[in-house]
Fold:
Amino acid sequence: MLSRLSNANNMASGNLSRMIHASARSASGVRVPQIGTFRLPDITNEPTNDYAPGSVEQEQLLAAVEEMGSKKHHIPLVINGKEVRTGNVLEQVNPGNKSQVLCTYENAGPQEAEAAIEGTLAAKSKWESMPISDRQAIFLRAADLIATKHRYRLMAASMLGQGKNIWQAEIDAATESADFLRFNVKYSSEIYAQQPPCNARGVWNRSEYRPLEGFVYAVSPFNFTAIGVNLAAAPALMGNSVLWKPSNSAVLSNYVAFDIMREAGVPDGVIQFVPGDAVGMTKQVFEHPEFTSLHFTGSTFVFKNMWKQIAANIDKYKSYPRIVGETGGKNYHMVHPSANIDHVVNSTVRGAFEFQGQKCSACSRLYVPRSKWADIRDKLVAATDSIKQGPVNDPTNFMGPVINQAAYDKITNYIEYARNASECTIIAGGTYSDAEGFYIRPTIIESTDPFTKTMREEIFGPVLTVYVYEDANIDATVDLIGETTPYGLTGAIFAEDRLAAIELSTRLLNTAGNFYINDKCTGAVVGQQPFGGARASGTNDKPGSAALLQRFVSPRSIKENMVPISGFTYPSNQ
Structure:
């Protein structure tokens, strides 16, 4: 394990080779030797396992799920490397079996939040002084631990705690978590290598990429374990210290991920793991003068409220805070008359109903030409009705439960709205039960009104609304896509006609930050499709790219003059 930085002497003696562009100092303040420029290992996407029936991978994963679910876990706060108990204990239940308490966890109050904040600030000076190559090594090791030793443990926690089937856990907890950590390392080197291209004679210009002054507040959602990893790890890699508040519905998996990063060598205090009351903790954080950045994924409503709180406290801060957020989406599939019907159907079922529609990018609007609707409807309904749904420990289930009672109630209210709305017809699904877990059948609504409630508002569940347009009105329908909702996260077009695809892509330019041609609107891969949208969907800082890491550094330009000047006047003064 890499050293924890808690011992300054060990740090100074162990860090022998440094990248030339790192302005590294030991804990004593003495600049450490820089005697090498290191080349990173090749960075590629983590391969996915298929988990075919009877495979070793499936057997080992299901054994990990059984082991994880056989006991009730207790999750402490971790502040400055110490496990903290508050006496205020909450529960995370299995959404597929709500009578099963997966874990209890400590709930931070004002005293613990203050200790965590002060701890991040105390840990920061040593951490930011560590050469980038050593910080990179820590997170590369964390990625390897996720991909190997702890792969099934992290996946099991995500499956049981967040209702993911095997494939959804694989592409999230295992591969995307490792991808974020590895590609961030690659991007950090690219950022540090960005240096001034020109130097006047007798001058050496260079750029440094300083961590932000203060601490970063990372607030992560329930739906992707990998997002929690990235929200905390990305700013930390760039030398920042982070207070991480995980979602109350994902404490177990997020704690496993945090524990893996500690095993990899993240020093005590650099990332503080602090579940707690979102409203109270956020208020306390935003009132602290050393608050320097918000790294957030969650609802648009919450993000806007956070932005307002930051604005109200702007005069308290040492620096203007960096606000980085990915929020909601009302994502669409637009079908052109030339589209491949079977491909549209299969892509839409995946895009709308994988992980119960609880992806920020999930398809919830479908626009279909009248000439193709009868064929698409029959195949779409048949495919949707065939979806197998149930507990995550049955690998044959394509869908599982939604995350909790609040989500269940919200989603089913939308279904009932559609059932009673004159413009809407439920053509698939529409049933649900919370007798054992929070199960909602995948539901398709056909609406004659393109502005009906289920076409405008984010539902975040397995509900798809279809608007059938007249083929002659395709231009007006394209305009509808951008006018119907305030969001701009993901969207997809389906067209075999290349000229049509070009025109649709151009006209839908600002409707989606991630845009897909003949593919579903979900499934962005780190290093391939950096993710994020604008409008009400967030700041579009593109996690999975170098652009995100740029938000957590403050560049310093340096000019060093080599030749003394002989006077103070200029030639024009003669």
Summary: The CA atoms of residues 203 and 561 lie 5 Å apart. The first helix runs from residue 8 to 14. The first strand starts at residue 73 and ends at 75.
